[in-house]
Amino acid sequence: MRYIVLPGLALPLLIALAATSLANTAWMQHWQLSSLTLAILLGMAAGNLGQKFIPVSWKPGIHFAQNRLLRLGIIFYGFRLSFQQVADVGLTGLLTDLAVITSTFVGGYLIGTRWLKIDRETAMLTAVGASICGAAAVLATEPVVRGKPHQTAMAVATVVLFGTLGMFLYPLLQGMLHWPDRLMGIYTGATIHEVAQVVAAGNAMNGAVVGAAVITKLTRVMMLAPFLIVLSLFLQRHHPGQEGRPAITIPWFALLFVVMVGVNSLAVVPAGIVPTINTFDSFVLTMAMAALGVESHIGKLRGVGPRPLLLALLLFAWLVIGGVGLTRTINALVG
């Protein structure tokens, strides 16, 4: 089996190398376009323009990157976080994160499936991209909901679009809200999609804002593991298998993600090695995103229609407007 997947791994590997190189250019860094975003775009270009040149024998390797490497990347993502960061953000940030995640995901799922009549997988992937941590959350949720590549690609596209809009909008909102830096940082970190987008928006304000924003955002990222476990239990209970009984399946990669957060919190790994682990993790996730792009054919994306985009727009509006109300209310209660 290991030799079967090797030829197919070459394509996502090359795309990941190209995406990483592009992401390190000054222009891409200015616009905060990460290697993950670039990888899916390059992968889609390769998969659609060069589809007839991709041998069938490469499929196992592409699927290996799309599934196994994805789980590996999520596990090692834990080295970016620590439990100390949760303590630093305080109860206001923690409760705001919980409120944003719960309201955005549940609201997105209900609006998407009941009002917009979107399939369950697309609605969940779009909602989780808005509610937790953008592309990484979409990728981590895909195996739990058993989403298809084109559904995942659509969800990632909405993260890129509306997260980028947030980068430009939030500095304008700071002048309108006149909030203290810490509160503005909590609001920014709890409601913008991607970590890189949070950094960009915070830097456009000031150092105090970006510090609180990043810690709040990383705390939100840390909630990915318990979220996936709860989601898995929900799906097994409400969508049982053919036997008619819900078989409890635990996403073990999510538990290992928490273990890695604990390892990082205890500082048992030498500090000089952690950046290397994070670089390796970013590249593994970039390969997974490239493989996802290769499998995301335009015809399938067109078949999804405009409704996921409308759902993402509604969720973005909720994050911006509803996020103000949630942040203000929780700060007043806990403050």
UniProtKB/TrEMBL annotation:
Q: How does it sit in the membrane?
A: Multi-pass membrane protein
Q: Does the keyword Transmembrane apply?
A: yes
Superkingdom to which the source organism belongs: Bacteria
Could you tell me where this protein is found in the cell? Answer: Cell membrane
What the entry lists under InterPro entries is as follows: UPF0324_pro, UPF0324_YeiH-like
Question: Keywords on this record?
Answer: Cell membrane, Membrane, Transmembrane, Transmembrane helix
Where it mainly occurs, coarsely classed, is membrane
Keyword Thylakoid attributed: no
Q: For this UniProt entry, which segments traverse the membrane?
A: 33-49, 93-111, 123-141, 153-173, 208-235, 247-273, 310-330
Residues in the signal sequence:
none
Pfam families per the record? Cons_hypoth698 (PF03601)
Q: Tell me its family.
A: Belongs to the UPF0324 family.
Task: Return the protein name.
Answer: YeiH family putative sulfate export transporter
In its UniProt entry, the species of origin is given as Candidatus Competibacter phosphatis
**Native organism taxonomy:** Bacteria, Pseudomonadati, Pseudomonadota, Gammaproteobacteria, Candidatus Competibacteraceae
